[in-house]
Amino acid sequence: MLYIITSLADYPRLAFLGVLAYLIAILFAIVLHEMAHGWVAYLNGDYTAKMRGRLSLNPLKHIDPIGFLMMLLVGFGWAKPVPIDPRNFRDYKKGMITVSLAGVICNFIVAFLATAVYAILIACTKSVDLTIYVGQEISAGQYAYFFFSYLFQFSIIFNLTLMAFNLLPIYPLDGFRLFETLKPSSKYVDFMYRYGNYALLILLIGSSVLGRISPYLDIFGMYITFVRNVVGKLFGLIFGVNIL
Questions:
Q1: What pLDDT is recorded for position 132?
Q2: pLDDT value at position 9?
Q3: Active-site residue 137, yes or no?
Q4: DSSP string for residues in the chain
Q5: Which contacts qualify for 168-175: CB closer than 8 Å, 24 or more apart?
Q6: What is residue 107's predicted lDDT score, i.e. its pLDDT?
Q7: pLDDT per residue over 1-57, tens digit each?
Q8: Please, is 34 exposed, middle or buried when counting C-beta atoms within 10 Å of its C-beta (0-12, 13-18, 19+)?
Q9: What are phi and psi of 78, to 5 degrees?
Q10: CA 136 → CA 10, 125, 126, 132, distances in Å?
Q11: Set 8, 26, 34, 150: catalytic member
């Protein structure tokens, strides 16, 4: 987000629209991810999330302050976990698997749809010169194109980032919940319940520190970038646009 502000310092209105698009994309990625968990839990017979008001598009019900700050600063983070009670599931194993996968599948679908809409935007404006030159007076159409172009690109990036992040088999992420369901009795599961939060923190901080020495030491960043680029380029090939 700071990059948007600094790179568009000479165009405060564009900077404002860029930051607004950034925030909207983050909030929708987080909110829809958590709502997907709660909604699929509801379909499996658990009404806990619904009773606690978590099947809502209100971002205030889902935002974790630290996780949201991380999203603003580094482009990935987390929200408040949606409360579920697996004892209410009609089929425990099916319920846990589908609820665990609901968030990442939702992010995948949103990124796919955002790519489709972005491709339509590009196609509709292909014959129009919307390039902004230094000192040029910017038209309303250019402002609109700038905002929606950034909004859909950020939506693709953040949803794919959130998807990749949550697929990690580290407690308390979705990937761990899926692993635990498929292999509940294992030393790895016991270890994660005890030290998973610390392991995740060490991975994030360690990769960030080592990444300053060499990008090849940033294991976490390389993983996120790999997943995001592979899926993003696949979407780009499908719709004929370059997004990443």
A1: 63
A2: 57
A3: no
A4: -HHHHHHTTT-HHHHHHHHHHHHHHHHHHHHHHHHHHHHHHHHTT--HHHHTT-SSS-GGGTB-HHHHHHHHHHS---BPPPP--GGG-SSHHHHHHHHHHHHHHHHHHHHHHHHHHHHHHHHHTTTS-----TTPPPPHHHHHHHHHHHHHHHHHHHHHHHHHHHTS--TTSHHHHHHHHHS-SSHHHHHHHHHHHHHHHHHHHHHHHHHHH-GGG-HHHHHHHHHHHHHHHHHHHHHT----
A5: 168/200, 168/223, 170/196, 170/199, 170/200, 170/203, 171/196, 171/197, 171/199, 171/200, 172/81, 172/196, 172/197, 173/200, 174/100, 174/101, 174/103, 174/104, 175/100
A6: 97
A7: 555 656 665 667 888 888 899 889 988 998 999 999 999 999 999 999 999 888 888
A8: buried
A9: -155, 170
A10: 11, 19, 20, 7
A11: 34
Among candidates 93, 90, 105, 103, which has minimal Cα distance to 181? 93
Q: 154-175 pLDDT, tens per residue?
A: 999 999 999 999 999 999 899 9
State the burial class of residue 148 (Cβ atoms within 10 Å of its Cβ: 0-12, 13-18, 19+).
middle
Q: Give the number of residues written for the chain.
A: 244
Residue 49 · residue 84 · CB < 8 Å: yes
C-alpha 95/C-alpha 72 separation (Å) is 32
**In angstroms, rounded to a whole number, what is the distance separating the alpha carbons of residues 234 and 229?**
8
User: DSSP letters along 130-147, please?
Assistant: ----TTPPPPHHHHHHHH
Of the listed ranges 44-53, 136-145, 186-195, 218-227, the one predicted with least confidence = 136-145
- Which residues, other chains included, contact 127 with Cβ-Cβ below 8 Å and sequence gap of 6+? none
